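Thread: Newbie trying to understand structure tokens

Hi all, I'm a second-year student working on a class project, and my supervisor (Dr. K.) asked me to get a predicted structure for one chain before our next meeting. I've only ever worked with sequences, so writing a 3D structure as a token string is new to me. If someone could post the tokens and maybe explain what I'm looking at, I'd be very grateful. Here's the chain:
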Amino acid sequence: MVNKNKILSDLSKMALDAMSTFSGVKKEIETIVSLRVNKVLNKMNLVKRDEFEVLKKMVQKLIIDKENAKKTKKSPKTRIKKTNTRKKKKKN
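---
Reply by user tm_fold:
Sure, no problem. This is what the structure looks like when written as tokens:
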């Protein structure tokens, strides 16, 4: 009976060790994959999300400003120049 308990104890210890080893391997693989993906993305010279959001807001503001400028800008009207029909009197 003692030998059975010892064997079961040893097996459970080995299983726990194996699980912790697999967990460490999993973390290591995730780290390696993450680094490789980041390396590929950096080579592609992509824009980061926060930089994109800032640029997007700037463009939206410029579009709104342009629309407001169009609304306030009046189209030039052709004015008819009034001529003075009265003659000015000359001072003597």
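A couple of things are worth pointing out once you decode it. The chain has one domain: 7-71. The first helix runs from residue 2 to 44. Feel free to ask follow-ups in this thread.
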